[in-house]
C-alpha cells in the first residue's frame, strides 16, 4: 500500500536519507524505529509531499499523496501539527473538514470517538497534551481513511488513552487498512506493530517482522540499542 523507492534527501552537503527502499503492505502496522536525527520525520514529510526527495519516490497505492482526492483516503497526524490555541476543538475539526467536503456531523462523531465528547467547545489552549493528541487523531480519522500515517501518536496519552489507541489501531489494521507509525515508546510499539524498520543516520539497518524480532532479540528495546551501537 505504501512504497518507498530508493529515497534520498540531502540538505546542502548533508545526506539525511540514503537510498531507503521498503514497503508497508495492506493490513499491516509498520513502525519506523530510530533515534532523533535518523531520518524518520524527513521520510514522513517526503511521503506526504511536505518535503521533496532529492531522488527516489514515495507513493501510496501507486500514486503520490498529492494526487489523492479531498475525501481523505489517507489520514495524517504529525507531531508538528499544532492548531491555533484560541480555536475551539470542534471549530478546528470543522475547518479541516470543510476543505475536504466533510460535514459537521462527522466532526462531532470523531470527537466523540476519540473521547473528547463534552470538551468539543473548549479552547485548545485549555487542553492537556493528551487531549491535543486525541484531537490530532480525530483530525486524521475524518473521511474514514484506509491509510493512517501517525507520528508519535502516543505522546501525552495516559494509560487509558494508550490502551484505547492500541485497541483502535489493531482493529483498524484487522479490517485490511494500513498504518505507518513512529514512536519512542518501545513497549507499546512491540505490542502493536506487525513489522519494524530500523533507521540509523538515514539508512535502513534492519527490517524485521514481529515474529523475526522475537526470534533474534530479547525485546524491541534490545534491538534498538544493539543496532544503534553497531552502527556508531
TrEMBL record:
Keywords for the protein's UniProt record, in alphabetical order: ATP-binding, Nucleotide-binding, Transport
SMART domains: AAA
Domain of life: Bacteria
PROSITE patterns: ABC_TRANSPORTER_1 (PS00211), ABC_TRANSPORTER_2 (PS50893)
Family annotation (Gene3D superfamilies): P-loop containing nucleotide triphosphate hydrolases
GO MF term (any one): ATP binding
Residue intervals of the ABC transporter domain: 2-226
Pfam families the record matches: ABC_tran
Family, as annotated: Belongs to the ABC transporter superfamily.
Stated name of the protein: ATP-binding cassette domain-containing protein
Organism this protein belongs to: Arcanobacterium phocisimile
Amino acid at each position: 500500500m505504501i512504497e518507498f523507492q530508493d529515497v534520498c534527501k540531502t540538505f546542502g552537503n548533508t545526506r539525511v536519507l540514503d537510498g531507503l527502499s521498503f514497503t508497508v503492505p495492506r493490513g499491516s502496522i509498520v513502525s519506523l524505529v530510530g533515534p532523533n536525527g535518523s531520518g524518520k520525520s524527513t521520510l514522513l514529510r517526503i511521503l506526504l509531499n511536505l518535503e521533496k526527495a532529492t531522488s527516489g519516490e514515495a507513493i501510496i497505492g501507486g500514486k503520490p499523496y498529492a494526487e489523492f482526492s479531498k475525501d481523505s483516503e489517507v489520514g495524517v497526524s504529525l507531531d508538528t501539527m499544532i492548531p491555533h490555541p484560541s480555536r475551539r476543538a470542534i471549530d478546528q475539526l470543522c475547518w479541516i473538514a470543510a476543505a475536504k467536503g466533510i460535514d459537521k456531523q462527522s466532526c462531532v462523531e470523531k470527537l466523540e470517538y476519540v473521547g473528547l465528547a463534552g470538551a468539543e467547545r473548549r479552547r485548545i489552549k485549555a487542553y492537556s497534551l493528551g487531549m491535543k493528541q486525541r484531537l490530532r487523531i480525530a483530525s486524521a480519522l475524518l473521511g474514514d481513511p484506509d491509510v493512517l500515517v501517525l507520528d508519535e501518536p502516543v505522546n501525552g496519552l495516559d494509560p487509558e488513552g494508550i490502551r484505547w489507541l492500541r485497541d483502535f489501531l489493531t482493529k483498524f489494521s484487522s479490517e485490511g487498512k494500513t498504518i505507518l507509525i513512529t514512536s519512542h515508546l518501545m513497549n507499546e510499539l512491540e505490542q502493536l506493530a506487525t513489522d519494524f524498520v530500523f533507521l540509523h543516520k538515514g539508512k535502513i539497518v534492519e527490517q524485521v517482522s514481529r515474529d523475526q524480532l522475537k526470534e533474534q532479540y530479547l525485546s524491541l528495546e534490545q534491538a534498538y540499542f544493539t543496532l544503534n551501537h553497531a552502527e556508531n
